[in-house]
Write a structure and sequence with these properties.
YefM-like fold; 3 helices; single chain
Length: 86
């Protein structure tokens, strides 16, 4: 862990009693370390990036894949029978 990272260390008993307050701190960007019998057992940190506020640009994956010409063709009878367990 880097020195510039804000971190709070708490016992398991404290974490159980103050979970909501600890999650408020995590939500604000802090990492909380939980210990049991003086041993670190868990780190609770903020989740990854939040959802985008604006939609992805149209055509983002242009030319990345190609839909085959027969994509909408009916499936062969043998394959349909396999799906039905025949």
């Amino acid at each position: 862990m880097t020195n510039d990272m804000v971190m709070k260390q708490v016992t398991l008993a404290h974490a159980k009693a103050e979970l909501s307050a600890l999650l408020d701190r995590v939500e604000a960007g802090e990492t909380v370390v939980i210990t049991r019998r003086h041993r670190v057992v868990a780190e609770v940190r903020p989740a990854g990036p939040r959802r985008r506020s604006k939609p992805r640009p149209f055509g983002l994956c242009r030319n990345e894949f190609r839909v085959p010409d027969d994509f909408d063709d009916p499936l062969p009878d043998a394959l349909l029978d396999a799906f039905d367990g025949r």
